[in-house]
Amino acid sequence: MIQILIIEDQPADVRLIRQMLEDSHLKCRIEHVPSLHEGIALLAENPFDLVLLDLSLEDTLGFTTLQSYLQDAPEPKTPVIILTGNRNEKLGVQAVKEGAQDYLFKSEINTKQLEKSILFSLHRSKTSKTCSRPTMNWPKVRNAIRKPSKSQNWPNGSWISFPIPWCGPMKCSKSSASNRMSSNRPWAIT
């Protein structure tokens, strides 16, 4: 069962969203609060799988609503889909860049579109959590690579070891390294 929190201050919009969710193929438990402040408090008390967030609420307005949600919601952040009456495509793109999973216009939303958006948002959120990589410490990586001195003579076919911490030692021969450097694809593995 998908636990959904609707943060919306217009009762007619809440009824419409509830009806769409009931008509969908999704099995949902739905809770509703009219303000961002109440929504963040409820998220701190109860786990939810997804938040449907209106950008025009009684306690906040516009893009700052999303920014406040992302700043104040407890960790781990519950994925959020923006629902708005504002048909500004640039705002939608900006919302997704800032961390929203999707952006839907209230005037164009239908049951199938809402269902699809919820499923994709949950999948993207789960995938991003399971596939995230630890941040690389690039100065440490650079220091771990042993560089030969200029005066070192490399006979053809000798090996230089590059101990890279996250994938083990990598070896390349002088001849293959020089071939890669002279080709149009210096990153190619030969």
Descriptive labels:
190 residues; 42% helix
Would you kindly provide a written description of the structure presented here, covering whatever features stand out?
With about 190 residues, the protein is an alpha/beta fold. It folds into two domains: about 1-130, Rossmann fold, CATH 3.40.50.2300; about 140-180, no CATH class. It is about 40% helix and about 20% strand. It has seven helices and seven strands, in the order E-H-E-H-E-H-E-H-E-H-H-E-E-H. The strands form two sheets. A five-stranded parallel beta sheet has the order 2-1-3-4-5, sandwiched between helices. Strand 1 (about 1-5), helix 1 (about 10-25) and strand 2 form a beta-alpha-beta unit. It is globular. Mean pLDDT is about 80; it is low at about 145-150 and about 155-190.
Blueprint (SSEs and pairs):
Layout: E1 2-7, H1 11-23, E2 28-33, H2 36-45, E3 50-54, H3 63-72, E4 80-84, H4 89-98, E5 102-105, H5 111-131, H6 138-144, E6 159-164, E7 168-173, H7 174-182
Helix pairs in contact: 1-5
